[in-house]
Amino acid sequence: MKNNSREMSKEVTTPLIRKSDHEIESTFVQELKKVSFVAAPMVAVTVSQYLLQVVSLMMVGHLGILVSFSGVSIAMSFAEVTGFSVLLGMAGALETLCGQTFGAEEYGKLGNYTCCAILTLTVVCFPISLVWIFTDKILMFFSQDPGMSHVAREYCIYLIPALFGYALLQALIRYFQTQGMIFPMVFSSVSALFLHIPICWILVFKLGLGHIGAALAIGISYWLNVIWLWVYIKYSPSCEKTKIVFSTHALHNLPEFCKYAIPSGLMFCFEWWSFEILILIAGLLPNPQLETSVLSVCLNTTSLHFFIPYAIGASASTRVSNELGAGNPKTAKGAVRVVVIIGIAEAIIVSTFFLCFRNILGYAYSNDEQVVNYIADMVPLLCVSVSADSLIGALSGQFYVINTFTLLRTSMTIESRSDDLDFNVYFGTSNLDSTATNISILKTFCHLHSM
Its GO CC terms (predicted)? Predict the structure, then answer.
C-alpha cells in the first residue's frame, strides 16, 4: 500500500511541476514581449535625441580644424556636466510619479506632474545659462588651453536655446512614455534627427558658421521635436484625459515633484560627471588638443551606447511603476528579471561590434590617422565600460536609484507580503560602484598614453 501511495503521489506531483515550469516560461515570454514593446521604441527615441549632439561633433570634426574639434569636445562635456545631465536626471522623477498615477488611473495628476516638471526645468535653465556664458573663464581656471576654452565658450553660448528646448522635451517624453504612447515619441525624435543632418551640414559647411552652426542646429532640432509633440498633445484625443493644464491647482504638486526630482538629478549627475570630468583632465595632458579630442570621441561613443540600457531601464521603470500603481508587485518583479537578461545580451552584442570595427570607428568623427589609431587603442577599455553600463542600466531600472525610494514607499502602501519587498532591494542596486569602476578604467587609459 505504501509503495502504491508513493507511486500515486509521484504521478500526481510530476505533471504539476511540469505545468509550473511551463507557466513560468510562458510568463517570462509574455513579460519579455511587454518590456520589448516599450524598450525598443524608447531606444530609438533616446539614441535619436543624443545623436543630434554626436552628429554635430562629427560635422565639426570633418572641418579638419583640431582646435575647433577639441573645443567643441570640451564644450559638449561642460554642457553635459552643468546642464543636460541635470535636466535629464530631474526629469527622471516623472517616470515614477506619472507611472504610478497612470497605473492607479489618476489621470489628472499625470498632467499636473508634467506641468510642474516643465516649469521647474525651465527655471533651472536660467542659472545654467549664466554659467555657460563664463565657460572660457571657468575652463581656464582649471588650466585648460585658452584656444579650446574660447571655442568652448562660443559653442555653449549658441547652445543655450537648445538647453531650454531640451528641458521641455524631456518632460514631454516622460509624459508620453508613462502612458505607453510610443508612436509620437518615435516619429518626432527620428524626424528631428533626419532633419538635423542636412540642417547641420548647411550651417556648418555651406554657410561657413563652423562650430557655431553645429550648436545652432542642435537647438533647432530640439525645438522642432518639442513643437511636434506639443501639437500632438493639443489635438490628439488620446491625451484628453491627461491634458497638461498650467494652473495654480497643478502647482500644488510642485513640492512633491521637487522632492523626487532633486535627488534624482543629483544621483544622475554623479555617474555622468565621472565620465565627463576625464575630458577636463585630458586637457592637462601633453598635446591637450589631441588627448581631449580622442577621449571625447570615446566617451561620446560610450554615452551614445549608455542611452540604450538607459532606455531599457526607463521602460522597466515605467512598467514597474504602472504595476505597482495597480497593486501588482509580483508582476513588477518579473519585469525586472526580464530587463536584466536583456541588459546582459545587449552588453555582449555591443562589445563584440566595437571589437570587430575598432580600426574604422574613428573615421566616423575624423579623417586624421593619428586620431583614428588612438581611438582603436581605446576600444578594449571601452568594451569593459560598455559591459558595466549595460548591467547597471538594467539593474537600476534607470541610471539611478531614485526608484528605490519611491518603490519602497509604494510597496508599503500596497498590502503586499514581506517577500515582495525583496524586489525593491533588488531593483534599487546602487550605482556608486559603477562610478568608481568607470573612473578607474579611464584613468588607467590616460596614464598609459601619457607615458
Answer: membrane
